[in-house]
Structure formats: C-alpha cells, structure tokens
Amino acid sequence: MWEFISEHRDALMFGAYQHVSLVVQSVAIATVLALVVAVLVHRIPRLSGLANGISSIGLTVPALALLAFLLAVLGLGVLPSVVAIVFYAALPIVRNAVVGLNGVDTTLVESARGMGMSRTRTLMRVELPLAWPVVLAGVRVSTQMCMGIAAVAAYVQGPGLGSFIFNGLARLGGAGATESAVVGTVGVVILALVLDGLLVLLQRVTTPRGIRA
Predict the structure, then answer these.
(1) Calpha distance 139→206 (Å, rounded)
(2) How many CA atoms lie within 13 A of 185 on its CB side?
(3) How much is the mean pLDDT over the chain?
(4) Is the dihedral of CA 113, 115, 118, 124 positive or negative?
(5) What b/e string do you get for 177-212 counting C-beta neighbours within 10 Å, with b at 16 or more?
(6) Cα–Cα distance list, 50 to 54, 72, 96, 160, 200 (Å)
(7) What does the DSSP assignment read for 115-179?
(8) What is the DSSP string of 56-97?
(9) I need a surface site. Which of 11, 34, 43, 213 has the fewest CB within 10 A?
(10) What would the pLDDT profile of 74-128 be if each residue is shown by its tens digit?
(11) Mean pLDDT across the stretch 16-36?
(12) Looking at residue 101, what DSSP letter applies?
C-alpha cells in the first residue's frame, strides 16, 4: 500500500486538489443558488410545497443515472460533474435555509422594519445572520454528500480521486488494482473529514456571538 502511495504521490496530491476544488466550488455555487430559492420560498410561502417536493424527488435520483443523462447532453469532462454536484448540493441547503428563515422570530423582523430598515436590509442584517447556523448545517451535509458524488463523477471523466477508484475496480485482480481503489476511497474520506472540520471552524467564526450554541 505504502509503495503504491509513494509511486503515485504526485498524482494522488493532484487528484486530491482537484477533488476538493470541484466540491468547494460546486457547493459555493449551490449555496448562492439555494439561498436565492430559499428567500423566494420564504417570501412566497405557497412555493414551499413545490420546493420541498422537488428537493425530495431530486435526492432520490441516483448520481450515476444523472451523470449518464448529463453525459449525453454535455459530454465528458468537468462541466457535467459540476452540474451534477451543484444539483445535489443545493437540495439540502434549500431545505435548511427555508427552515432557518422561517424560524427567525417575527418580532425581531417587525422591530427591524419599525426602525426603518427596508425589506432587503432586514433580510441581510437580521434574517440571514440569524438563520446562518441552520444554513451552514445544510452546507456541511451537502459537502459531505458531494465528496462521494465527486468520486462517482469520474464516470464522466470528472476530476478528482474517483479515477483511482474506478481504475482500481476496472482492473480488479490486476497489479495495484486493490491499492488504487482503497487509496482513492480512503483519500475521499480523509478529505471529507478535513473539509467538515474547516466548516465547523467557519461556523464558529461567522456565527454571531449572541446565537452561538
């Protein structure tokens, strides 16, 4: 095992970098999109059922099936990987963001409006900061989930450690096949734990002191 790691150290490091980069950028895009959708749902409550329905159905779609569909539409490479990960990442964040925004005390919102704040300023200065811990919990769930989906993205020649897993499984029984699959899998798990730790730190730094648990 150590011999395999030593021989492929540069490729593993580059794959790990690509894996993290793919997940972080995709989750960042998904967070922005999800917050826009959540604010719309918060402002127009009748959209809540539609958003929850789409979220529930979307999470049941197998990643491999979605990637196969995107492969037919977008071809091979990074783009179908990013689209698939953004899709899956946005679903838990939308749910959490809606719950977080709906959970903000209405008296605080009314007080802010009474002080002359516009609706947009109330959202940015009061509602989103108070809902932020719940939103970030959704981001953590999405990030962990998408670390695994990013590995599956190797099916469409997406970047990351998934290529080690797929190559190992394709050559199972051959020289270095088991090591390739195991190292790729363990690498994804380690990266997921590191990213989660960083998100916990981010939550600690960005959550207003008055509402920290």
Answers:
(1) 14
(2) 11
(3) 87
(4) negative
(5) ebbbbebbbebbeebbeebeeebeeebeeebeeeee
(6) 6, 28, 15, 34, 31
(7) TT--HHHHIIIIIHHHHHHHHHHHHHHHHHHHHHHHHHGGGGT-SSTHHHHHHHHHTTTSTTHHH
(8) HHHHHS-HHHHHHHHHHHH-SSHHHHHHHHHHHHHHHHHHHH
(9) 213
(10) 888 889 999 999 999 998 999 899 989 988 888 888 888 888 888 888 888 888 8
(11) 94
(12) H
CA 33 – CA 167 distance, rounded (Å): 34
Residue 20: partners with Cβ closer than 8 Å, 6 or more residues away = 191, 195
Q: Which of 106, 109, 136 is nearest to 120 (CA)?
A: 109
Q: Do 51 and 193 meet the contact criterion of CB atoms below 8 Å apart?
A: no
- Identity of the residue numbered 61: V
| Residues 150 and 81 sit within 8 Å (Cβ to Cβ) | yes
Question: Per the structure block, which two tokens stand in for 78?
Answer: 């990074």
What's the Cα-to-Cα distance from 176 to each of 152, 164, 169, rounded to whole Å?
A: 20, 10, 10
**Spatial separation of the C-alpha atoms in residues 123 and 68, rounded to whole Å:** 39
Residue 43's closest CA among 111, 122, 140, 115? 122
Q: Cα(35)–Cα(33) distance, rounded to whole angstroms?
A: 6
User: Angle 48-60/9-43 helices, nearest 10 degrees?
Assistant: 150
Which 3 state secondary structure label does DSSP give 213?
coil
